[in-house]
Design goal:
Strand order of the largest sheet: 2-1-6-7
Order of helices and strands: EHEHEEEEHEHHH
Strand content: 15-25%
Radius of gyration: 22 Å
Shape: extended
Oligomer: single chain
Number of strands: 7
Amino acid sequence: WNKLILIFTNKGDIHCNPVIQHLQKMNEPHLRINTESLLSDYEFSFQVDSNGDADFSVLCHRNGISAALSKTKSIWDRRPHKPRELFKPLQKSDTAEKERQVIIEEAHEMSLWLRLASSHLFSIGSPVNDVLAECKLVQFMVAKEVISQLQLDIRIAIPQTTISNRKGFFSSLFGNHAT
């Protein structure tokens, strides 16, 4: 096996197609994993051998390409979605719906494990750092720290902000800014 590139995205993500076409032109081994179809289009497994070495493997049913984490050189954590397609539809019942939800949650966790386990590889995007960077609370804390360290002659103000599920918090914010 040549080491390959794993691309975690979704079926609707057309923006990664030109990159994939370039990889194909360059004969660069890669595997696109449309994470919403993890249960329907892929076989995946996590194994620990008798030496205690752990590895993760995935096989795409659509194109026959298989990959192992130990044979992966880099990842592109592009736009993964939560799994939602099952290989075999379940019966219509309350119990079947609960089973479906458990199966999907377990597959979502396995998808996240694979992406987290590959965090030591060269990557574009990161399931750890991207979530942290998207966190509004962290953004405000970092902004305040950066502004105070810069000690600029001009004043940069962080806008008063409310993120809440309580109407009272918004009322007070609007009351402070009434015109």
